[in-house]
Amino acid sequence: MVQCGGAGHSYHIAKRLSEKGLLIGIDRDTDAIEVAKERLKEFKNVCFVHDNHDNIKEVVKNLNINKVDGILLDLGVSSYQIDEKSRGFTYMQDGPLDMRMDKTQELTAEYVVNNYKEEELARVIYEYGEEKFSRKIAKNICKYREKEKILTTSKLAEIIEKSIPVSYNQKQGHPAKRTFQAIRIEVNNEIKPLYSTVMDSIELLNSKGRICIITFHSLEDRAVKQAYIQATGRCTCPPGLPYCVCGKKNMGKIITKKPILPNDEEIRVNSRSKSAKLRVFEKL
Q: Are 252 and 120 in the same domain?
């Protein structure tokens, strides 16, 4: 069993595998790995790997394992990362502009905000945050940084808030939410490799093995849904061709025709689960 992210799930998985099997925990955040190690110290069947889930094939290969029975991908930012202001993920507390899930990587939110060209900033904010005021926000960020560098989450949030009409803010929640999401996704490269990660994960599964993926926003969910569809072997050839040339092969079936959503009790216990969607795929 391979688990990527979501240290909170680790105990229950390890317990079920305690008599037979191995749990491989992959996370790019060393803090999350340390938490998981403490929670799972009673189990001897857990292997912890500091890496990115995008490298899942290499991780498993380096452990001399060919196939696995199950994979859980818990995508996105963790509650710990949000709540720890020194990590710079949230607009709700003042902290350094960091946003790195892996603190050993070089690219930070501070670099993105202070060094990306206005056009590139606008693209990131629009593409990853689906923010309709992306051009205005990017323009105001670049205008402010001409005077001084933007170093804190509170200063960035202030600039964003001044870039969006008050009447719009009242309807859409906190004005910085979408832009912070966009910059975080850019810093951690969360979307571009996701399709390939899902396909690589499916290839790693044994027959009847399942991959379960939890997403927290539409961009992630869209990429996962598309990968699952492609993995069923759906032909992608242009209409009108006399025969198939794309060579798509059926790798399995989608178990969840519609995503599984949290129930009222789950949302009551953890309000951040409200946007979660779970999709499951089974290997042939």
A: no
Both 112 and 173 in one domain: the answer is: yes
Whole-number pLDDT of residue 9 = 61
**3-class state of residue 263 by DSSP:** coil
Give yes or no for a contact between 176 and 99, defined as CB atoms under 8 angstroms apart.
no
Nearest Cα neighbor of 9 from 102, 86, 73 is 73
Q: Rounded to an integer, what distance in angstroms lies between the CA atom of residue 13 and that of residue 148?
A: 48
- H helices of 232-271, in order, are 264-269
Q: Residue 173 and residue 226: Cα distance in Å, rounded?
A: 29
The count of structural domains within the chain is 2
Amino acid identity of residue 88, one-letter, is G
pLDDT in tens, 79-120: 889 889 999 999 999 999 999 999 999 999 999 999 999 999
CA-based max dimension of the chain: 62
Q: What is residue 245's predicted lDDT score, i.e. its pLDDT?
A: 75
Place of tokens 């025709």: 257
- Answer whether residue 8 shows pLDDT above 60: no
